[in-house]
Amino acid sequence: MRPESIQRVAAPLRALAQRFMFLFLLLAAGTILLIGKADPQFFERARIVVTDAFAPVLDAVSRPIATGTELIEEARYLIQLRAENIALRATNARLLQWQAAARALEAENTQLRDLLRFVPDQPVKYISARVIADSGGSFVRTMLVNAGRRDGVRKALPVVIGDGLIGRIVETGERVSRILLINDLNSRIPVTIGPNRHRAVLAGDNSSQPKAIYLAANIQLQRGARIVTSGQGGVFPPGLPVGIVASTGASGVRVETFVRTDRLDYVRILDFGLAGVLDGDRREDDAEY
Amino acid sequence: MKATIWQQIDVILRNMTPALVTLCLVVLGVMPLRLPEISTVAPPLVLMSVYYWSLHRTDLFPAIVVFGIGLFQDVLSGSPIGLNAFILLGVFGLCASQRRVFHGKSFLVVWWGFMVVAAGALAIEWILMSIVRETLISPQPVYFKYLMTIALYPPSAWLFARIHRSLPRMA
Predict the structure, then answer these.
(1) Cα A60 from Cα B34, distance rounded (Å)
(2) Is B32 in contact with A263 (Cβ distance < 8 A)?
(3) Contact assessment for residue A26 and residue B86, using Cβ atoms and an 8 Å cutoff
(4) Most buried in the list A126, A242, B64, B93, measured by CB within 10 Å?
(5) How far apart are CA A188 and CA A168, in angstroms?
(6) What is the pLDDT of residue A288?
(7) Which of A139, A208, A254 to mutate to test binding with chain B, by most B CBs within 10 Å of its CB?
(8) Domains of chain A by residue range
(9) Buried-exposed string B87-106: b where 16+ CB fall within 10 A, e elsewhere
(10) Rounded Cα–Cα distance for residues A185 and A64 (Å)
(11) What is the per-residue pLDDT for A277?
């Protein structure tokens, strides 16, 4: 019965066990990273289950932060009130003109559809949701919203805010869904640019202005040309506004989008009833994420 | 006198404090802050917490806790699972093994150590992310993020030290 000698043996053994545990965990982390790279779907289900479980916490914590930032917004609005008022009156006058033009076009449209016996598209279903979490990393542009399968959200549905497209749903749990923003590295959206409808793909590169790639050569683009989804691939319906051309130069065609992280409170998820190439429930190897 | 059940619970909770603090920072880190481009330059508070607690209270902050927190952060933030676990474990390993170097030194030394560790951690995050996404990501946002991180370490360390004082002495 010699407790000291047992102590003398136990202490270095414990240190060895701790070091072994550390190396084992380090190796495990590396292995998980490799598995995740080789088979992205493997961990996605686990990820969404855990996120679902923490949804109430995220929802609750994000509310006071939302209130706090709302108060700051209010102060900012009050300061800029006068200037904003003048700008809004000018916009209003312009919009009234557009409204008249739109009415005329609508009338003409109805007549033409009648003539052609046109079959209208399916009605759009909207699901509104609040942003409850941002992505914490600097190389990942995703958001979590508090709408899930129980609200009718499915994978690959487009997500918009008032002005235009901001991303699509990549994961859905019971209560939360993850949105991949269009300026994330993984985001690729088929679009058309400008009045001549040049085909291109909008590729995010983690910056605030994604690039338009796969453009045909020798195409001259104007700054300010409108970019809308082309509907190819059946993922996004055609005609959704995506942004405008911000610059064309050495770094490629840069697009100014509607994604404003300082104003993303509520988003709308659109359900057009499409089932395109990214219908995750049917395809096994959705290697996008 | 045997400790009452409340005292035992108190001790258990106090011992879990570093892990709980870091977990709270993970949740805070993903909160939407409505500031333009904040997620690119927001300092990784979890990194600061892991650095601090690995250095000062390794007994309450074992490797398995760091691993779990790293995985949790990956799950919530949408990063490839295993990335933050790997980086945080690396920071933990470095700090836990170099504790004797920093024992009793002034705060500036600890801060300088953090600058080195943070640079390494952010660099490895950038490299691993580029490898996983198979594309060279622009390192531009990382520079500013690094400056924010090292600038915000002193106030965070002050906060952690306050919490540290309320914990039971090391065994």
Answers:
(1) 17
(2) no
(3) yes
(4) A242
(5) 10
(6) 46
(7) A139
(8) 3-39, 188-257
(9) bbbbbbbbbbeeeeeeeeee
(10) 31
(11) 55
A109: three-class secondary structure by DSSP: helix
Q: How far apart are CA A175 and CA A145, in angstroms?
A: 9
Residue A241: enclosing H or E segment and its boundaries? strand A241-249
Count how many residues are written for chain B: 171
Closest alpha carbon within chain A to B135: A185
Contact A138/B135, CB-based, under 8 Å? no
Tell whether B36 lies on the interface with A, counting CB pairs under 8 A.
yes
- Report chain B residues whose CB lies below 8 A from the CB of A21: 62-64
- Flag whether pLDDT at A141 surpasses 60: yes
Superfamily of domain A188-257: Rod shape-determining protein MreC, domain 2 (2.40.10.350)
Q: Determine the residue of chain A that is closest to B38 in CA distance.
A: A261
Residues of B in contact with A137 (CB under 8 A): 39, 77-79, 84, 125, 129
Mean pLDDT over each residue of chain A, to the nearest integer: 85
Domain ranges of chain B: 19-27+44-154
Angstrom distance (rounded) from CA A220 to CA A149? 44
Please compute the mean of the pLDDT values over residues A38-65 and round it to a whole number: 86
Using CB atoms, which residue from B27, B80, B133 is nearest to A33? B80
**Measured between beta carbons, which residues in chain A are less than 8 angstroms from residue B32?**
62, 65-66, 131-134, 143, 261, 264
Distance CA B13, CA A94 (A): 63
CB A247 within 8 A of CB A239: no
pTM for the full predicted model: 0.81
ipTM: 0.85
Q: Which residues of B touch A262 (CB under 8 A)?
A: 34-36, 38
Vertex A38 angle, CA A36 and A44, to 5°? 35
Question: Mind listing the pLDDT tens digit for each residue in A85-130?
Answer: 999 999 999 999 999 999 999 998 888 888 787 666 667 888 999 9
Q: How many angstroms separate the CA atoms of A84 and A87, rounded?
A: 5
Task: Tell me which residue in A31, A54, A141 faces B76 most closely, judged by beta carbons.
Answer: A54
Q: Residues of B numbered 83-112 whose beta carbons fall under 8 angstroms of chain A's beta carbons: which are they?
A: 83-86, 89-90, 92-93, 96
Query: Which residues of chain B does A167 touch, with a Cβ-Cβ cutoff of 8 Å?
Result: none
Residue written as tokens 């990942």? A140
Rounded (to 5) percent helix, strand, coil in chain A: 40, 25, 35
